[in-house]
Protein 1
Amino acid sequence: MWSRRQYLTLALGAAASGCASPAGVGAPSLDSLARAKGMRFGAAVGRRDLDDARYCDVVRRECGVVVAENDHKWPVIHPAPGVYDFAPGDRLVAFAERTGIRTRGHNLLWQHPRWLAPWVTAYDFGANPRASAEALLREHIATICQHYGTRISSWDVINESIDEQTGVLRETVLTRAMGPEVLDFCFHVAREAAPHAQLVYNDYMGWEAGSANHRAGVLRLLHDFKTRGAPVDALGLQSHIGANRGTPQGSFNPPQEREWRAFLDEVTGMGFDLLITEFDVNDRTITGDIPQRDRAVADYARRYLDITLSYTRVKEVLTWGVVNPKSWLQRFTPREDGLPLRPLPFDENYEPTPLHAAIAEAFEGAPVR
Ligand code: XIL
């Protein structure tokens, strides 16, 4: 915990620079706590969030890195063959640069049939499907990486390519055209086009028993990347934790912890860095009043973060959004009682929630890296 003196020192510093943290006068920002341990803290920012001055203030105060919630994804940035729309994504990168913080790129290919751009799903790969899929992917990845150059320091090259039930590669029009080499191909093109950037495989495997096949599939994939020499630097742990995959809240028990550690041990043992890329806590099934729900969310998060951040290979933690009412989960997994979810560290008044304190405490308790 921070001593009173440390808080006071920071409070004076913050007051002098005119940027007290919203967590209370003098409370250190999440990014400053992360940096004290050799990490960074950040958040996903949606297009409309940049028009929200209070939202931007929170990001400026708390974050050392941002990622576009949607604006670097294929359907937005490359909405038709040969057509690129960089304007929305550029706006976030410009905001980050003005703020003096980094931007991560998410993502070059979401290898999932639901999330490909419709025109890609309908694409005619012709008589030589492999060659035309390679040409399409090369153009897409090289154009975007070259557009941003060093302004984007880390890319999720591939997102969610392993089926959570079976643990095997998802089938898409691209794997049908090229086979499983799609993934290595994308990483090689990204390395060529953005040699400075950290290249990440990002997925949502968790520690629950029901995620065993997903974890095993991701481990096989990472192992294959190593064996074949694909230029993959890190695994992104999306970390949408909580009730979204049928796990009752608070069931983070010793067997699950063992499974999760075994997974992280294998990943780090293979030499990959780790990032928590999309953290939020789904409280869809948590009952009780708001303080009780917030407490349960914070406790669950703390447990996850304490274990995961004990791995010094974790270098960044990003939440998927900032304020509860704007979380994607409100639309994707609404509560049965119709009440809004509370998955993020700031509430509807842009005030920090107990989850904010839990993240801060997890950073304070984490080893230096
Ligand atoms: C979500 C966005 O938050 C939504 O606005 C969008 O409609 C769908 O995608 N895993 C990911 C993210 O990798 O890109 C997803 O973002 C959330 C789950």
Protein 2
Amino acid sequence: MYVLGVETSCDETGVGIVEGKRLIINETYSQIVHKEYGGVVPELAAREHIARIYTVARRAFEKSGMTPSDINAIACTRGPGLIGSLMVGSLFARALAQSLNKPFVSVNHLHAHLLTPLFADPDFEFPYLCLLASGGHTILAVVWEPLKIEVLGKTLDDAAGEAFDKAGVLLGLPYPAGPLIDKIAKGGDPSRYRIRQPNVKGFNFSFSGIKTAFLHIVNDLRRKGGNELVGSERAHLAAAVQSAIVEHLISRLRKAIKIYKPRRVAIVGGVAANSCFRARAQELAERYSLKYVAPPPQLCTDNGAMIALAGYFKLIAGRRSSITESPRARLPLDEFI
Ligand code: KG4
Ligand code: ZN
């Protein structure tokens, strides 16, 4: 079964095609209009999706050598996300499904991220412990089956990616700062600046304390030596904040491994593209002799292929969505899978 997936929940315009669990093609356009704003500007994002969606879809067909009539079903992100952006993808996908007279199924964006370990290894078995860290969400969950997910914990304030991006603003980096911090941090010493780990109960996360501590460090430096001093310390600052964010993520994962004793563990979402996080998660998995995967970086960030994959699992379970169904900005995992 060939499923085409459409993703437009935030600032990536994505179209992907899967054949069952197998990835055929994944085409993404990452919007650059937000660079100077330090975050995604919703109105600009929606307009960019309108401008790009058709080209991205056409490229997916051209590169895969497929035509719309080869597709068996269309999947699309229903939410959560920016409502204007969601609307663009949803209308595009529903129109395509209707014009081709093919089944349509809508997908929870978070659910789709949680299934991306299968792109790293199609035989990765269920259940697995999965840490989703992205720009909008940080969730620790057990993926029991493709359509059965148990959330163990989530962030009480900012998301991990948001923490990277806000730290980037303080360092004068353009949005999204996560990938840049990853790069810059390679030349820095993470122990040069101390950032205390948050003290959060259970499996929940909190990044606001790290953000505030980092703000104080940067402000102190600025008082002592202006922007010049902050600039010359940038690699160490990036390394310190990256290390604090990653260690917090790893601490929850370690706790869940100790208590739940899973056999398999995965990290997903945009922040799972972070080289330090990937290395630390792998180390942890090896220490507990667990099978570990992280999807390739381009499938960690938002993409259409993961929507197609989640759509595939819903379709084989007999699920269909109405062509009149509208997207939802807020869509918790326990309400819609
Ligand atoms: O999953 P994603 O594409 O979108 C959401 O669903 O939010 O994640 C985007 C987030 C951004 O905050 C970005 O800064 C972060 O993922 N990110 C990274 C890296 N690549 C992307 N953060 C740290 N290191 C990276 N290499
Ligand atoms: Zn996402």
